[in-house]
Amino acid sequence: MPKQEAPGRSYTFAAWCELRGFSRTTGWRLLRDGEITTYKVRSNRYVTEAADRDFIARKEQEAAA
Hints:
three-stranded antiparallel beta sheet
């Protein structure tokens, strides 16, 4: 089985929403629409630093267009 890289820093979903300045409802909409990817550990949902970087990069590209 190939070794997987550690995801690096992760934020709880609620902390990520607060960090980005929007409500959890908006965060859930972004998740539903495929704008952000998360993973679950038991009942907790997390956003990796890489997923956050990808989200920011896409939003910056959309704003520049």
